[in-house]
Amino acid sequence: KLLNDGLITKTEYSVRRNQLIDELTGTSLTTLAASQYKRRRGSSASDNVSNVPAIIPKPPPDFINFPAEKSIKYTYDLKTRTWTQQEVNLKLDTVPFSRGSLRVVYHMEMEETDKDKDREVVPGEAKNRFVAKISMNPSDNKNTKVYFRDVETQTIAKYYAEKFNQYHPPKKVDFIKACVLELIQREGNPIVGVEKFIPGPYRKHNSNYGYVSDEERNTPQAFSHFSWEASDHTLLVCDIQGVGDLYTDPQIHHISGEGFGKGNLGMAGISKFLQKHRCNAICRYLKLPQLGNKVSDIGTIPTTRLMALNNIQIVTMVQQAGAQLHSQTAVLPVLKRQVVVDSTKEHTRCSRCSIL
Q1: Rounded Cα gap, residues 195 and 131, in angstroms
Q2: What distance in Å separates the CA atoms of residue 59 and residue 199, rounded to the nearest whole number?
Q3: DSSP secondary structure letters along 147-199
Q4: Less Cβ around it within 10 Å: N or C end of the chain?
Q5: Under 8 Å CB-to-CB from 264, ≥6 apart: which residues?
Q6: Rounded distance, CA 185 to CA 96, Å?
Q7: Going by C-beta distance under 8 Å and a sequence separation of 6 or more, which residues neighbour residue 194?
Q8: How far apart are CA 306 and CA 286, in angstroms?
Q9: pTM for the full predicted model
Q10: Can you state the angle between helices 30-41 and 10-25, rounded to 10 degrees?
């Protein structure tokens, strides 16, 4: 029907059909179809994205008839700078529902651990509903550290958000807690990045190189400015995007230009933000050094003009994320059948990730 209605191309229809065959039969036609698609459309030395399946926007499916699979979940602790792991069960959709500039995104259902059940519930989140993000760059399929570095970056951004909220701005901000999954019942044990599924309109507020949304909301712009001042001019949290003021996929620029992945543009990215930024009422409330000729009083305004404290405190508890980012192919290997997993082994520490 999507093909007949002109919503997808014949190539996308072929890829989608093969994905359904993969799911029902356990065969592996998807990767072949995607590679044929690449050959038909041509490629060049600068073409780093391939094997991208058709995107079909849709809400989370009913996972009742989806096959369950075991996976290893890796979580990061910023205080101890360590990764821990445990086995979890999940169900993963076969078709991505969205894509960004770097990743395709799949709906996923995953059982929550006891630790997850004890945490504070994020407004709007659906129980056991997650998204799995997979890189579209096939040249990065040999080094999975990208996923671990992305989680470290998002965890650091979340830490800065907590510090921002301590000054009681008009609106609090947060970053979705992210983790990494190793799909141990699929060929090659692919790695994916995972976070909670949050329904609602998704907005991008700024980028890693000076872009500012036409809306130019005060809160996300002030948060980026805050991160620069709170880090004592060593880093900037940008590429702010998400649902409301619940953000995801941030980029961190560091003055050294090292760590935090390929999107870390160092002082070039920082300077671009500082040139473009116009301080607003929240910047003024936090007593941040003024950028721009005049403070804008449009948009969200604090109830008091200035906070009671003399200035914000410098955040020192930060460790750079790894220097190099790489990733997996966007096409997921199909779920293996009749795989026996030894559940008697106790997993408490990821020795492989501790050296990343």
Answers
A1: 6
A2: 9
A3: HHHHHHHHHHHHHHHHHHHTT--SS--EE--EEEEE-TTBTT--EEEEEE---
A4: N
A5: 251, 252, 253, 254, 257, 258
A6: 19
A7: 73, 108, 110, 130, 131, 132, 133, 178, 179, 180, 181
A8: 7
A9: 0.76
A10: 160
Average pLDDT over residues 310-326: 63
Rounded to 5°, angle at Cα 111 from 92 and 64 = 55
Structure tokens belonging to residue 231: 């880090």
Distance from C-alpha of 320 to C-alpha of 255, rounded to nearest angstrom: 11
Query: Which residues, 6 or more positions from 146, have their beta carbon under 8 angstroms from its beta carbon?
Result: 135, 140, 261, 325, 326, 327
Confidence of residue 282 (pLDDT cuts 50, 70, 90): very high
Sign of CA pseudo-dihedral 221, 257, 233, 275: negative
Closest C-alpha among 41, 33, 78, 66 to residue 335:
66
Q: Which amino acid is at 124?
A: G
d(CA 211, CA 277): 10
Q: Which amino acid is at 69?
A: E
Residue 85 β-bridge partners: 74
Nearest CA to 176 out of 104, 240, 83, 103 is that of 240
Helical packing angle, 218-230 and 266-276, nearest 10°: 130
Q: How far apart are CA 284 and CA 277, in angstroms?
A: 13
Q: What is the token pair recorded at 72?
A: 């290893």
Beta bridge partners of 191: 182
* Spatial CA neighbour of 116 closest among 130, 131, 105, 106: 130
Torsion of CA 7, 8, 9, 10, to 10 degrees: -110
| E strand or H helix at 70 | strand 69-77
3-state class (DSSP) for residue 19: helix
Interval 165-209: pLDDT, tens: 999 999 999 999 999 999 999 998 999 999 999 999 999 999 999
Side chain identity, residue 298: I
- What pLDDT does residue 299 have? 95
CB 302, CB 169: distance < 8 Å: yes
